Amino acid sequence: MGCRKYVDFDTYPQSNSKLDAVLARGEYHKVKPAPPISGSDHTIVHVLPVLTEKHRESQPKKKKLKPDPSKDNTDILRDALVTTDWNVFRNPRLNIDELTEVASCYINFVSDLHVPKKATPLVTLSKRIPADVDIKRLEKEKRHAIEVKDRELRNRIQRDINRRVYQKRTSVFQEVVTADSKSLWDLLRTLRSPDNDEKQPVSKEMANELKVYFGRFNDSIC
Predict the structure, then answer these.
(1) Full-prediction pTM beyond 0.85?
(2) pLDDT tens digits, residue range 15-71?
(3) Which residues contact 29 (CB under 8 A, 6 or more apart)?
(4) What number of CA atoms fall less than 13 Å from residue 106's CA on the CB side?
(5) Which whole-number Å values give the CA distances from 195 to 61, 124, 189, 192, in the listed order?
(6) Helix 133-147 and helix 151-178, axial crossing angle in degrees, nearest 10
(7) How far apart are CA 132 and CA 160, in angstroms?
(8) Rg (Cα) of the chain, in Å, rounded?
(9) What is the Cα–Cα distance from 183 to 173, expressed in whole angstroms?
(10) Closest Cα partner for 143 from 62, 55, 59, 50?
(11) With contact defined as beta carbons under 8 Å apart, do 118 and 65 qualify?
């Protein structure tokens, strides 16, 4: 028949035997056991599809959610905790572990309520370097290798891409670092967002120290 048996675990726990089977062609599925439903005495066979390399890379990357620790959100959270009537949690029937769990759940609830979460996309450094013809060509060859399911060729091309990205990144950073201080400062501004930074007062002494330190990058600065 050319079919493969996917079930490799016991589906009838009472006799430790395999009474259920899943037959399919190819390597496009995988199975795993699941708890029985209601009063059934058979283990459920959960059949799942196996993603190919092409579909796996086409999936959108999930953005990581982190709490927004801005000053306004922190002040709102502090006010909510300060105005809480903690006497409500003083229940003589609760032991120390239960009381700790209740208080922790309440604090987490208040935090989720007053401190919204924002998405922080994962920005790869390879997208910050200038466009490169060789990298684009290798990416095209990699997509073709994925389509023909040549994993060895795909891995070899990926190593070439990583090597080329590293070389390009190194050359770009070297050009910026060896240039004037203004170019270096412009690069640092693109790598991070200073919107949430609090302004720090700069004294006259600190300004003189900074001028002497950064002045060595440009002879015109005195």
Answers:
(1) no
(2) 777 777 777 777 777 888 888 777 778 788 888 877 665 565 566 666 667 777 778
(3) 6, 22, 47, 48, 49, 50
(4) 13
(5) 25, 20, 11, 9
(6) 160
(7) 13
(8) 30
(9) 10
(10) 55
(11) yes
